[in-house]
Design brief:
It is built from 16 helices and 13 strands. With 381 residues, the protein is of the alpha/beta class. Strands 1, 2, 3, 4, 5, 7, 9, 10, 11, 12 and 13 form an 11-stranded mixed β-sheet that branches. A two-stranded parallel sheet has the order 6-8. The N and C termini lie far apart (54 Å).
């Protein structure tokens, strides 16, 4: 049995932390904490546990599924959300158990907070920047840029701090409220936690702020008809196929979640950013450093797509292009071979690009075949 106990709220300097004691039979007590700027103290409600419960659901399921929640939770989440989220988790594999709320549950109908506060993640990668650009184009611009320590920088404090500084500058320059959060979720999930369970961690972190952002947009990683959307890995299936269902189930009366980008391939998102001027100064995709060093897989893929789209020069300020400029055709070929889930769209972009001559395209294709001969049989299918 796991118990989410009543939290405490403490302010220290310019930061405020809400801490939930987590009790587990046969184990030492633990603490789940969320820290934000003290300006948002009024949105940390010690009488509620919606965010803590959603963020911990996969871990609770791994520990046997029984949980007692002492603070109140949303009536919408209690009557509809937890049941669906439990079904999603148990569908992944036998190591995950149904989540059962034990004891008396204090379910309260929340009153919506007036106003329109639109939030989204602030990692400033291709997916999140595309979401920001499209919301602005639709006349519903982002008002709150959210940056927490659950992300592609998971476990890398140097990368986290570098991106947080960049995200803060982007928010200030574009008239958005910057909302940072540090949590102790890493202590519960370890190194692979974010990659395995990010829809739960992200939505739970947003719910901790109890309606500060009442309309929150999550950025989809893949196109809904992506060729590698299969059930070969049930955990991947949970993350991507069911992401929209997870977000919908995590909603409360105060927070609505939306998923952007399911209709867009990665190169289409990159093309949108080519026509969004702020991206030329703030796009950040590197897996290794706070600056786009130009050699990791995401840097290589983004550089290659920008080049094939004819827009790389506009982004020269945010990428180290030495590796690309040294041998551009070999750079493209190596990127295509190692693109994994995105290989098919990279090949499509190579075929239809007007930047390369037919002879240059043949050279790139030749280098690809040398590195990955199986591409030859695939191209004839």
């Amino acid at each position: 049995m796991i118990t989410i106990n009543h939290p405490s709220v403490q302010t220290e300097g310019n930061a405020v932390t809400i801490s939930y004691p987590i009790l587990q039979d046969g184990h030492a007590p633990r603490t789940l904490s969320f820290t934000v700027d003290s300006r948002f103290r009024d949105f940390l409600n010690p009488g509620r546990a919606d965010g803590a419960l959603v963020a911990l659901l996969p871990w609770i399921s791994q520990q046997g599924g029984q949980v007692r929640v002492l603070p109140a939770i949303s009536a919408h989440l209690y009557h509809f959300g937890i049941r669906l989220l439990s079904h999603i988790l148990t569908g992944i594999g036998p190591f995950l158990k149904p989540v059962e709320l034990a004891g008396e549950v204090h379910a309260e109908v929340l009153s919506p907070i007036p106003g329109c506060r639109i939030g989204t993640g602030g990692s400033l990668g291709v997916d999140s920047l595309c979401t920001i650009a499209e919301l602005e184009k639709a006349g519903t611009p982002v008002t709150h840029l959210f940056h927490n320590n659950c992300g592609s920088h998971w476990g890398n404090r140097e990368l986290l701090e570098g991106r947080r500084k960049l995200s803060r500058n982007f928010a200030e320059k574009n008239g958005m409220e910057f909302v940072w959060m540090d949590s102790s979720l890493y202590d519960f999930y370890g190194n692979e936690g974010y990659l395995n369970w990010f829809p739960f961690l992200d939505s739970g972190s947003v719910l901790v702020l109890n309606g500060l952002m009442n309309s929150y947009w999550t950025s989809a990683t893949y196109h809904i008809n992506h060729p590698d959307f299969t059930t070969r890995d049930r955990r991947d299936y949970c993350e991507f196929h069911l992401q929209s269902h997870i977000l919908s189930a995590a909603e409360t009366e105060q927070v609505r979640f939306h998923l952007h980008g399911l209709d867009l391939a990665r190169y289409e998102k990159t093309a949108i950013l080519a026509n969004y001027p702020p991206a030329c100064d703030f796009l950040n995709v590197c897996l290794e450093r706070a600056f786009n060093y130009g050699t990791c897989l995401k840097c290589r893929r983004t550089i290659s797509q920008l080049y094939l789209l004819g827009h790389l020069q506009e982004f020269s300020k945010v990428f180290n292009l030495r590796a690309f400029q040294d041998k551009p055709l070999r750079f493209l070929a190596k990127t295509i071979v190692h693109s994994g889930h995105f290989q098919q769209e990279m090949l499509y972009l190579l075929k239809h690009s007007t930047v390369l001559s037919p002879s240059e395209k043949r050279q790139v294709w030749f280098h690809c075949i040398r590195k990955q001969p199986s591409l030859l049989s695939r191209s004839s299918q």
